Amino acid sequence: MNYYMITFTNLIREYNFFKKDINNCIKKVLKKGNYILGYELQKFEEEFSSFHKVKYGIGVANCTDGLELCLKALGVKAKDEVITPANTAIPTGMAILNAGATPVFCDVNENDLLMNPIELKKLITKKTKAIIPVHLYGAMADMRKIIEIADGYNIPVIEDAAQAHGSKRDGIYPGQISKAASFSFYPTKNLGCYGDGGMILTNDKRFMERLKLLRNYGQPDRYYSTITGQNSRLDELQAAILRVKLKKLNYLNKLRIKIANRYRTSLKDYIDFLDYISSCKPVYHLLVARVKDRDKFIEYMKSKKIQVFIHYPLPLHKQPPFKNRYKIISSLKVTEAVVNNIVSLPISPFLSELELNYIIKSIKSFYETSKS
Known about the structure:
With about 375 residues, the chain is an alpha/beta fold. The protein is about 40% helix and about 10% strand. It is built from twelve helices and twelve strands. A four-stranded mixed β-sheet has the order 1-8-7-5, with helices on both faces. The two termini are about 35 Å apart.
C-alpha cells in the first residue's frame, strides 16, 4: 500500500484520461506489425517538430542519448570541453562523459536557477566545443544571451529540453535558434510515453541527416553502414502513444500553469518560489521553491501523507562518476547554496481541487505552527 495519500505524480489518472485513444493506437500498431522506424515515428517527428516550429525531428531512445548523439555529430572528442550547469539531473552530465568530453560546470542565476550567461562567458576556452544550457523545471534558460555569447566564439549550443515541452522564452521554443534541442519522453514528463523515449529537434538539414545515421548504427540502408553509430531509436508503439498525447499537451500544460499560479498566489507569504522574468513562459514540469526548515517541512508533509521531492539534492560536480573528470573554472556559489533549501511540490495536471486545497492548507499549517 502506498504510504502517500497525494503522490507526486499520478500516471494512473493520466492513463485513464487517454485510455480509449491510447488503447486504439496500440492496437493499430500491433495490427500493422511494424515496430521500428515506421509510419508512426515519421508522423510524430513531423508533428512534434511542427509543434515547436522547428524543421526536423529525430526520434531517439532517450534524451541522454539525444545529447550524446548531438555531441558526437559535432565531432566532440576526448579532452574537448562542454559547458553545462552543475544544477541539473545526472543524465545531462552523463551525456558529456559518454561522448568522451570533459564537463565544465557553470553556476546558475539566483532567481530562476538557470544557466548564468555572465558566468558562462568566463568559462569559454579554446577547448570549448559545445554549450549545453538546461531548461530546468520546465523554464527556458536565456537562449538569446547564450546564443549571442556562443556565436561570438563560433561554439554550437545544444539545449537540454528534457523538461521543457512547449516552454517558451522571448517568443521562441527550444530548438528554434540553437544547433539542436534534446527532449525526454520519460513517463513523468509533460509529454511522456510508457517507457523511455526522446527526440532531437534541429533546423539544420545536414545535422539531421547525420543524427539519423548515428541513431541507427550509421546505416543509410539496411546492412550497410557508412559511419560508427549506435542503436538509439524511438519505437513505433511509443511514437503512436506520444502522437495521441501531443494533441492534449497545450491543454495539460495550461492546467499545470493554473495549479502553479494557485500555489504561488496562495503561499507567497510562506515560501519563496523561483522568480521568472515576464518573457519566460514556463510549463512547470516541476514547481520548485525555497523553503525554511526543509527537513522538518518534508517530514511534516510526509505526516500529512503528501509526497514532495528534492530536484536535485547533489550537484553534478559532487557526484562520484564525475570525480576527476570535470573542470571548474569559477565558483558554483549559487548552485551549492540552493541545494540545501529547495523542494518540489506536487503539480500533476490531474491533481484535484480538493487535493490542491489540502496541500496549500497543510503548508500554511506547518509555518503557522512553527511561529507559535
